Structure formats: structure tokens, C-alpha cells
Amino acid sequence: MHYALYLQNMTRLGSTFRLFKGSFMNKSSLKLGQSIRRLSSEETKKALKPNGTKKNAQLSKSDLSRLFSLAKPERARLISAIGLLFISSGVTLAVPYGIGRVLDIIYTTQTEEERQKRLNEFCGLLLGIFIIGAVGNIGRFYLMQSSAQRIAKRFRERIYSAIVNQKMEFFDKRKTGELINRLSADTQLVSYSVTMNISDGLRSLCSIVGGVGMMLWTSAQLSLVGLSIVPAVAIGSIMYGRFLKKMTKKVQDALAESTHVAEERLSNMITVKSFAKESDEVVRYSDKLQQVLKLQLKETSMSAAFWGFTGLSGNVIVLSVFYYGGIMMSTSSLTMGDLSSFLLYAAYVGVALGGLSSFYSELMRGTGASQRLFQLLDSKGEKETETKSSRPVLLGDLKFENVTFHYSSRPDANVLNNMNLVLRAGISTALVGPSGCGKSSIVALLLKLYTPESGLINLNGHNLSDMDTDYLRENISYVPQEPTLFSMSVEENIKYGKPNATEEEVKEALENACALNFVNAFPDGLQTLVGERGAQLSGGQKQRIALARALIKKPDILILDEATSALDTHSEQRVHDNLRKIMKNKTVITIAHRLSTIKQADNIVVLEKGKVAEEGSFHELIRSNGLFKDLTQRQMNRETHTNYED
Ligand SMILES: Nc1ncnc2c1ncn2[C@@H]1O[C@H](COP(=O)(O)OP(=O)(O)OP(=O)(O)O)[C@@H](O)[C@H]1O
After folding, report:
1. pLDDT above 50 (res 17)
2. Where is the chain membrane-spanning (predicted)?
3. Model confidence over 533-591: pLDDT tens digits?
């Protein structure tokens, strides 16, 4: 399932604006990753509510009309299916009448010969009618079922599109497993509730209307006896339906939570195993399942009571009809055939009442499950809120003017404080500073993954907030420290950066990223599958493939966030030599802790507590007695490749 992988990448790493930056995950605190940004618009707030319960959990008209609107594109098929349904229901309703008449033929015809003749004629007629009914049923089933499948597909596409277009804050907050559950289980439930369920409900309705009509026609007096139980069943059904709607929401939420736990652990098996936590994880998952089971058992006991009650009602109807019918037969106001037909109609009506209750409860289930999905569809995606779309040349100075920024989950902790920063075009700049000082947040703002609280970000003299987001991201390449590759071949992964790239271009990008040699050494070369998130490659290999994927875009601005940290110093040097050539006169921003990486930069900006503390070339900074010198000295005193801070 491809969407699962994409969602994983957006949410699991997403909290660390994962599309671009994997490096946070490895660092001490999942920094960006933990944030939950409070959204400005009320609508989006609603959409992002954790277990977003709408206050009004009752069935509203708009809930239902939205639910039914899903079926609109299938109108023609559904109407045909309903036509066929009327035919098959008509045939079904003819059965008791037919059986009654057969019994009357058997008991009332005088001669053997005449009985045989009338039976032959009548049963032949009935058989023909039954065949028509069966054909109608087959058609109805196929049309309804295929419509349900089409609706589910369309609905999933819409939900998936709504999810991937959400703002980054959404992915900070949501869990992959939960989203996958919404996409698979909830959509299935909803599409069933507006197709097969409607069909079954209509069939029940036909049986009830037709059955009651036939009962009244056969004997109005007996009908009153048989139908006296209906109001009680109807009230019971409504109460049961409401209960189910609430329960469905809870069960689906609990299921989503358990899927999340399983998904997160399964996709991080190395961590689980390296801590020998297999048994703990089984217990954790089982706890979640226990919560699901608890809710399901509650639902089941209610269902058992309800269905027991309806079953009893059905039997009571049959018994009372037998009782009064027997008395009426003895007074000759009813024939044997009439009583038999009546009994069968009463049984039909009883079964159909159960069917109608089940239709209502499934509809409630559907509305319960659909509320979360509609909330998702209603929440505005990041591009939807975009009002301006300038597409200027990006190769120019990048200026942060008095920029203040905090993640909405931590409104009191400013990451950037009135920061002023200029990153000059056409050169490479290294952003350095203690862990957590805001380096990656600067990149996140540049990529418009988040918006600053105040201040201006200008690129080549143009306000970033006026720029077309897709255009901006297409022309900037970002390589994270722990890049995410998709479970496709090396070639497909690289073409993710430029889908129409030729094989030559792919090889050139690999060469520039110093990856061609090891890719060529794989038996399948470019077609080598990299495994989920690149699990079948080493850390350094993954980084180089990710670099090639970024370089194939030939970006105006290249951002390397610890992008070569897993390479040995020799390979790193070769990569930087290549980058110097390819990115000549382009802007390169490097976030690094390693001295060997920092030294490659033309200019170094040292950040501290969300502000620029120092700036200059390596030699200038090392000569001054500032933070940079302090950081580098501490690094040199320790082992060569450790971070400034622990
Ligand atoms: N999504 C988030 N939600 C809330 N706070 C976050 C989020 N991401 C990062 N932070 C916080 O913002 C601050 C700056 O983080 P940032 O990732 O920009 O630092 P950094 O300088 O890149 O650190 P490092 O060198 O460790 O990568 C940190 O205090 C971090 O905890």
C-alpha cells in the first residue's frame, strides 16, 4: 500500500517536517517533531481536535445529506439497482400468496385430475416469477456492491488528498496508524452504509409495506393483532441506532489508536529489538486491543439484547397470529390458505422489521465513522489558504528581518527572537550553533512549512509569504541528515526529484553525489530495491542517494542538514568538491556540527538562542574569542566527530 508509506513519511517523520528533514529524529529531543501547532481558523481547529468529538453527536440532516452526497456519482447505477430491487421484492412478496393459493388448490379442488392440472399451471407460473426475481436480485447485488466499491475508492482518494495537503502542524499531531485506519476501515464502513445498506433497508421497507398491505387485504382484524408490537420495535430501533452511532465513533477511534501503536512499532523494529522490548510491545498492543474489545463488548451486549428483543417480538407476532387465526378458521372467516399466507407475510414483516432496524443502525454506524472523515475533508490544506502566488527568480539574498517564531504547541518558547539574518546568494553558508538553537527551524521557515509570528522573510527582494509554495519547493532542494527513501528502486527514488529525468541525468546525479560506484556495484544497479525507507542501504549510502535525488532537480538553493554526517571524511570531501563545482554561483546552506563540513563554507553564521551571535569566515571566527571558537575548541578537545553539546 503506497499511501501507507507516504503517510508514514509525512507523519512519523512529519513531525520533524519529515518530507525534508529526517535529522531531528536522531537528535536528542524530537524537537520540531513534538509540536502541535494551534491553527488559526476555527474550522481547522475543529478538524484537528485530537479525538475531535463534535458536541452534537446526534443525527443531523447535514450529516445525512453529506453522507448521501457521496453516492451521487453512482446515481444511475443505484437507481437501476433500486428498480431491480422493486422487482425482486415484488417477487418475494408473491411467495406467501402463491403458497396460500397452492394450499387452497390442494385442499379445495375436487378431482385429482383437475388438481394436477391447476397445480401444474400455477406452479409453472410461480417458477417463472421466481426466476425473474432471482435475476433481479443478482443485478441488484452486483450494481449495489460495485457502487459501494467505487464510492469507497473515490472517498479514499479524496481523504488521501485532504491528508497529504494538510499543513505541517497536522502531521506534527496526527499519527500514521490512525490516518491509515481512517483511510481503510472508516471509508469502507461509510461506503457500505450508503449502498448495500440502503439497498437492504429499501428491501426491508418494501417487504414491510407490501407485507402489511397483504396482511390487511387478507384479514384486517388479524393484522391488528400481528402489528401491535411494531411501535415498541420502532422505538427500540431508534434508541439502539443512536447508541450504535456513538459507539462506532469510539470503536473506530480505539481501533485507529491500536493501528497506530502497531504501525509505529513495526516500522521501528530496530529500536524495539535493540531494547529487547518485544514482549513489552506485545503487551502494549494487547492493552490497546483490550480497549477496543471493551468497547466492542459493550456494543455487542447491547446488540444481543436488542436482537433478542426483536426476535422475541417476531415470535410473539407469529404466536398471536396462530392463536387468533386458529379461532377465525374455526368460525370459517379464514381459509387454510389465507392463514398460511398471512403467517408467512407476518414472518416477512417480522424479518423486515429486523432488517429495517439493522439498516438504521448501519446508517448510524456510517454517520459515526463519516464525521471524522468529513472533518478531514473540511480542514483547509496548506495550499488552499494561499492567497498570492508570485514566482520570482529565487537566486538572490535570503533575508530574515526581525523574525520571531515559536511552534504553536509551545507558544511561550520562542525559537527565533527578532532575528535578523542575511544569507548571501551564490555562496555557501554554514549555520552552526548549539543543539536546539533554531538552525533547522530557519530552514523550515524558508520552505514555508511553518509561518513566523512576526517579521519578514525576503528572498531575492520578494516576500516569501507571497510566493507560490510549490514553485518555491520545486526550486529548493533539501537534504536531511536521515533521509527518507521510498521502497522503490534506486532509479525511481532519484526520479522522485525529477520524474522525467533520463538515465544519463540519473547517473550524472549519482556521480555528483559520489554514489555511482556503489550503485553500479549492486547486482541490479539502478534497479536495486532500497527497501522500506531505504532499510537495505547503509546510512552513508542512503544519504548519497538522497543527495542525488536533491541534485537532479538542479536547484537554485541547496540546503544540506547534516546531509553528509554518515560519510567518512574522505567521501565527504569528495562530495563537497563536487558540490562546489555544481553549485557554483548558487546558494548553499549547510547545517553542520562537524568541523570538516563547516570548513567547506564560504561564510559561517553562528546562532545562539534564536539570534545570530556571530558571522564571518572560518578564519575570522576562529581568531575572535566568541562562541564559535568556544564550540570548535570543545569539539577538538573531544573526539573529532561529536556534537558541540550533549
Ligand atoms: N515541531 C516542534 N514543535 C515544538 N517545538 C519544536 C519543534 N521542532 C523543534 N522544536 C523546538 O524548537 C527549538 C529549535 O529546534 P531546531 O530543530 O530548530 O534546532 P537545531 O538548532 O536545528 O538543533 P539541532 O542542532 O539539534 O538539529 C528546540 O528547542 C526544539 O525543541
Report:
1. no
2. 78-99, 119-143, 201-218, 224-243, 304-325, 345-363
3. 888 899 889 999 999 999 999 999 999 998 888 888 788 888 888 888 888 888 999 99
Q: Give, to the nearest 10 degrees, the angle between helix 196-218 and helix 336-378.
A: 150
CA-wise closest residue to 36 among 21, 15, 22: 15
Please indicate, yes or no, if residue 577 is contained in any of the structural domains.
no
How much is the ipTM here? 0.97
| Atom from ligand 1 closest to the CA of residue 431 | 21
Q: What's the CATH code of the domain at 200?
A: 1.20.1560.10
* Strand arrangement, sheet containing 611-616: 476-479, 557-561, 587-591, 428-432, 603-608, 611-616
Which three cell numbers mark 598? 563547516
Q: If you measure from the C-alpha of residue 445 to the centroid of ligand 1, how many angstroms do you get, rounded to a whole number?
A: 12
Q: Is 156 in the pocket of ligand 1 (CB under 6 A)?
A: no
417 lines ligand 1 (CB under 6 A): no
Residue nearest atom 16 of ligand 1, based on CA coordinates = 438
Residue 45 within any structural domain of the chain:
no
**337-353 per-position pLDDT tens digit:** 888 888 888 878 878 87
- The residue range of the domain holding 219 is 67-378
- The CA 441 to ligand 1 mean position distance, Å, reads 6
- In this prediction the pTM is 0.71
